[in-house]
Amino acid sequence: MARTAMTVGEAIAEAIAGRSQKDVAKALGVAASTVNRWISGEYTPSYEDLAKIEDVCGRLRGSILGAAGYVESPTTFQDFLTTDPRLTTKGREMLRTLYDAVAQHGADSAHD
What we know:
mainly alpha; 434 Repressor (Amino-terminal Domain); globular; 62% helix
């Protein structure tokens, strides 16, 4: 039987399991109530916040969106951007900006 994708909030809760919302919030520089609202689905975190949550929790980039069913193993990043019908134009632009920033950071780190 296929597993039903969880919500982004459920995926965040799974990612921070074993940590208090207060500790995660402090590491992210947000209020604990913000983390709680992300988990409850009252607020939707930005792509940047999702990346920070993954970093703080030692998760692979994209793991929260993957757990929530938004990423379906595209063959390339470009394929994902151009073919996923769930992405809006703004979402595509945000993902492209985040991807470029992460790629640049990785390139900069490789030269340090």
